[in-house]
Each structure stands twice: as structure tokens, then as C-alpha cells.
Prior knowledge:
about 140 residues
Amino acid sequence: MLFKLLMPYINKGTEGGIFIQWYKDEGDKIDYGDDIFEVKIEEEKNNLVLETPARVLASLAEPENTSEKIHKLDMLVRVCSADIGFLRRTYAQEFVYQKVGALLAVLTTDVDEEINESKLEAASTLRVVPNLISYPGIYV
């Protein structure tokens, strides 16, 4: 049976991420809970700072000042398997941006199973679990 490994949806508002590395090689068996790959997610967060009324009036005199701050946050996410299969063909390259839903790899349930590209569209999607590795100020 064929499985597609797709770039998973990691976080609300995230449309993709930078593929960092594979933890498995083509031909390797993937079991439940095995780490498959790592991805870096970049997102911008808007933080509205609450100001006192006097501060708001003072900032109106200085148009370049704003109470909204934008912070760029980087998250490293390790993706592990919730299914079993053999990693047969990889498409994702290291340090290349991948959109959510992009085809990263093909897996099969049998090590010598033929990969028929015409059947790939109808193939099931490998179930994965994204796990946060690091976030600014937090190291897991």
C-alpha cells in the first residue's frame, strides 16, 4: 500500500516551513513514534501594547511611534510517525521552503512494493505528529 508524506499543518496562520533535515534514509523502516524529519516555522506575531490615555495622546504627536510591535518567532518542529511503512522516495530537499500539503516523500507498507506514480494521487496520507523542539525562550 502506498502512503504520501505531506507537509503537515503545524500552527494556526502558518502556511508552510523550511524543511531542515531527514532523520531517515530512503529504504529505512519507519515505526510508530519514529522521528521522520525536522522543519523550521517562521511566523510574525503582532503584540498590541496597552497604553495609558496620557501615553496615547503623547504618541499621537509622534506619528512614527506605534503601540503595535511585530516580533518574528522561529520554531523548530520534529515530525514523528503515527503509522508504519518504508521510506521509499524523498522529494523534499534540506533548507527549502515547503507549503502545507506539499508532497515530501512516498512510503510503502512492503519494502519491495512497486511505486506506481499514477496511483499516488489516490494514496493514503501517512499520519504524523508534529512536536515542538524549540521556541524563543523555551527549549524542550
